[in-house]
Every structure is written in C-alpha cells, then in structure tokens.
From TrEMBL:
Pfam families: E1_dh. Gene3D superfamilies: 3.40.50.970. Keywords: Oxidoreductase, Pyruvate, Thiamine pyrophosphate. GO terms for molecular function: pyruvate dehydrogenase (acetyl-transferring) activity. It comes from Actinidia chinensis var. chinensis. GO terms for biological process: pyruvate decarboxylation to acetyl-CoA. It comes from the Eukaryota. This is Pyruvate dehydrogenase E1 component subunit alpha like. The lineage of its organism: Eukaryota, Viridiplantae, Streptophyta, Embryophyta, Tracheophyta. Residues 83-215 form the Dehydrogenase E1 component domain. Its cofactor is thiamine diphosphate.
Length: 244
C-alpha cells in the first residue's frame, strides 16, 4: 500500500466535515501539490466528524512521515448523510458533495452496490494517480443511530429504515445475485451464515472470559518508541513511562 508513487491511504471522515471550509482548503492544497486524493463521501443520512485527515496532511508537510513525502496519497471522506443525528438539509446547504469544488471532478456512486463501489474505486485510483484529486459520493445508508445517545429515529421514520433494508441492503443484493446465477444454493448460504455466527459467538465468549489487560497495554503498538505522548501541548512523562 505504501510502496513507491502508487501508494494510497483510505481515510474515512464525516460528511459533516465536508460541509466546512477546511474541506475546500484541503482540496485546494491537494490540487496545488498534485496529490492523488480520493475523497469518498459515504452518504447514508448520518454525519460523522472528520478523523485523521488533517493529521496526515500535517505530518507529511512536517516530514514526520518520510513515506508520505514520497508517495501519492488517496484519502477517503466518509460522509453519512446527516450532521451526526441531524437531518441532511439542516447539516449542509448542498448535499451533492461530489460536486464540491469546480476544480475537482466528482462521481456519485451507489454505495449499496458492492460491484459499483469496486469499479468506482478502481477508476478513482487510476484517475487520482494520473490527474490528481477526485470525489466519490457513495450513496449508502446507516440503519442505526450515531451513538447510544442517538436513537436514529428523530430525523427519519422506522418505516424508512425498513424499506431501505428490504430494497437496498448490500448483503441481500449479493445473496440474490448469487442465487439467481445459481452459483450456490440457499442451504449452502445458510450453512455459511451459521459458521460465521458460531465464530462470532466464540470470539465474544472468549473476550468476556479473558482478564482485563494491564493499563500499560493501552499504548502498545500505538506510538513509536521514543516519539513521546503529548496532551494539550504538554509532555506527559507519567504516560510516557508506560510506553515499551
């Protein structure tokens, strides 16, 4: 993934982030610096705040990640339709995120169709490596609320969720496609589901039976040894002491 100039990083951030000025500033910078950026907005009627994108850009600029200075970077913007439990029309002036930026081309993709997503991502990668940034707006859906405090039904109806499950669910789409082409049988698919559920149940049981890890494990494989941990600009020595 990070070898040579064909490397790409897929980072998921929220549609809520895509509605603020820093999003356009990011695209402007990527166009100027000729970065291979793939911004995929997963529009499923919900919003999530942005994640590691700015950190990646900052670390690359500061030279803290040597591989980033030598590689094209593909970033994926994960935008979930609404503004984190807010109706889409209230979260952004225009929900057509693939049209953002007149100097950045965009495509709208059926995010509930695995094959459409695969082809769109393939096209986007080829385009980004040759021509620079491109936006993919993935038209998808989230069945549940954003968190425990979000019931997921204050800005939409239960009937709407049910209809999407019945008509657009990506797993059911694949199931129907497999059966219609007689690739396998209904019984074989059910057997596969049983095996998967068994594996999941066993993993859950093992996790519940396992003892709580030592607090020092919190930082295992998170920070590079010697890099240090900082909080609010202050070096936390008591935290650094727990690093391996």
């Amino acid at each position: 993934m990070l070898a040579g100039n064909k490397a790409c990083i897929a980072e998921l951030v929220g549609r809520q982030w895509a509605g603020i000025a820093v999003c356009m500033a990011m695209f402007a910078s990527c166009v100027c610096w000729q970065w291979a950026v793939i911004a995929a907005c997963l529009a499923n009627r919900e919003g999530l705040p942005f994640g590691l994108l700015l950190g990646i850009l900052r670390k690359r600029k500061l030279g803290q990640w040597p591989w980033a200075a030598k590689s094209n970077i593909g970033l994926s913007i994960d935008a979930w339709g609404d503004g984190m439990g807010t109706a889409e029309w209230r979260a952004a002036k225009s929900p057509a995120y693939y049209k953002r930026g007149d100097y950045v081309p965009g495509l709208k993709v059926d995010g509930m169709d695995a094959f459409a997503v695969k082809q769109a991502c393939k096209f986007a990668k080829e385009h980004a490596l040759k021509n620079g940034p491109i936006i993919l707006e993935m038209d998808t859906y989230r069945y549940h609320g954003h968190s425990m405090s979000d019931p997921g039904s204050t800005y939409r109806t239960r009937d709407e969720i049910s209809v999407v499950r019945q008509e657009r669910d990506p797993v059911e789409r694949i199931r129907k496609l497999i059966l219609s082409h007689e690739i396998t049988t209904e019984k074989e698919l059910k057997d596969i589901e049983k095996e998967i559920r068994k594996e999941v149940d066993e993993a859950i049981a093992q996790a519940k039976e396992s003892p709580m890890p030592d607090p020092s494990e919190l930082f295992t494989n998170v920070y590079v040894k010697g890099f240090g941990v900082q909080s609010f600009g202050a070096d936390r020595k008591e935290v650094r002491a727990t690093l391996p």
